[in-house]
Amino acid sequence: xxxxxxxxxxxxxxxxxxxxxxxxxxxxxxxxxxxxxxxxxxxxxxxxxxxxxxxxxxxxxxxxxxxxxxxxxxxxxxxxxxxxxxxxxxxxxxxxxxxxxxxxxxxxxxxxxxxxxxxxxxxxxxxxxxxxxxxxxxxxxxxxxxxxxxxxxxxxxxxxxxxxxxxxxxxxxxxxxxxxxxxxxxxxxxxxxxxxxxxxxxxxxxxxxxxxxxxxxxxxxxxxxxxxxxxxxxxxxxxxxxxxxxxxxxxxxxxxxxxxxxxxxxxxxxxxxxxxxxxxxxxxxxxxxxxxxxxxxxxxxx
Amino acid sequence: xxxxxxxxxxxxxxxxxxxxxxxxxxxxxxxxxxxxxxxxxxxxxxxxxxxxxxxxxxxxxxxxxxxxxxxxxxxxxxxxxxxxxxxxxxxxxxxxxxxxxxxxxxxxxxxxxxxxxxxxxxxxxxxxxxxxxxxxxxxxxxxxxxxxxxxxxxxxxxxxxxxxxxxxxxxxxxxxxxxxxxxxxxxxxxxxxxxxxxxxxxxxxxxxxxxxxxxxxxxxxxxxxxxxxxxxxxxxxxxxxxxxxxxxxxxxxxxxx
Lengths: 302, 257
Prior knowledge:
The complex is a heterodimer of chains A (302) and B (257). Chain A has 302 residues and is of the alpha/beta class. Chain A has helices spanning 77-89, 105-116, 138-141, 144-157, 173-182, 221-234, 248-257, 267-270, 274-288; strands spanning 6-8, 11-13, 17-19, 41-47, 60-63, 66-69, 95-100, 123-127, 161-165, 187-190, 194-196, 199-200, 205-206, 213-216, 239-241, 261-264. In chain A, α6 packs parallel to α7 (248-257). By secondary structure, chain B is an alpha/beta fold. Chain B is built from six helices and 16 strands. The longest helix of chain B is centred in the C-terminal third of the chain and has 14 residues, at 197-210.
């Protein structure tokens, strides 16, 4: 067995496979299917300072090799997370990472400060890229000034590993990545969903309740891979790659493009065991090609 | 309840009409898990290139002795249509059992009415056979557009009394289930409904007026089926809740109907 361990700015992962926020609940939803301790980490559902009801139904539309969603960060708020959910997940033997979102830099910072107090949460993923909320979310992730303001505020409040999740709905994702690196991010993850739309031709209406949603699934993989490659070549901090990864081959492509770790999202819906299959597949690839460690293939593609 | 991710093997494929298919499958790797009426399975659709997600299909009949589970499938779109390609011996990948099902009667004497319309009759057969196992006898009230849309009536008659309405009057009483004379003749203590939304709304309103507890089974569009993605939410008195996890069966008192 090859050495699958990776290090994301001090955050130690036993392997490079994480599950993506919003697709894996709090992990417990999947524990009937896989041993969660076999994962590098679990990024739990987006959490905000105040509870949020999210957007109205319908929130989902199926597309060719993918899906659109406009859930809109439904969650019961950071208080509820700390008191009710954290006790249920703190003993899961993998890195439990909280995805944090907000309406203002102060909101983000306050929420992050609360998570900072939780011993068994070694990192947060800062969501400045949600396309489904009116205020905050992607609004911060689409300008270097907005991204800088949020990351600076959170960096002051949060002492552990700070990962910033980037939006692909921008002209230059490398500019945003450079800005968040300068503002103090320990790592970046990309990509969040691509903004899209679906129309019901019989009703002659847009399907999703708010009209638009975020596209995910295998259809976005080439876009995600290109962005990961570009960002990994432009910044110094580690990159976590995601976007349409459905199997070990996809994951290895992201590692070769320069990602130090990867996240699996929508593919969990089709196969709830896919994440552990990807861990195994990466190991087999390394063995087959004579690599001792997964670190050897990170960014190996020219 | 523990959920399972299984490669089932199709044992029979019976086309009931142009639009309906009865797919029966066994678990080749061991006994099927315990399942509850009103729960559902997420079936993988690999045959269709134009679809992507699994399809939530309710448990129609479960025979633990034969180790078989049956699904009644209506051809709705490309996903369900692709299940027509299954043959005996085909693999049917399923995640099951999912969600919360119907409340079982608390006593054998309790008079339970099971109301179904269209493909919504599917979970009621499982409910009926489970009630029969405990020694109770349900009453079915099944509605359809026309005689040719009434499916497997013999299977329903084998475990309870069956009353029928058709919109064109080709079988049973003419009209909708809410107009059937059995509702005047007999007093029921519990009602469970699965069918098109207008039918469920009408039955829920009837049950409310009559003061009878009523459960309905919702079919909001789903992605994960596990309560992880929060796509299939229903706006209830407790806020947005996942139909796949907190439902699909809800007491109408919890809904904003």
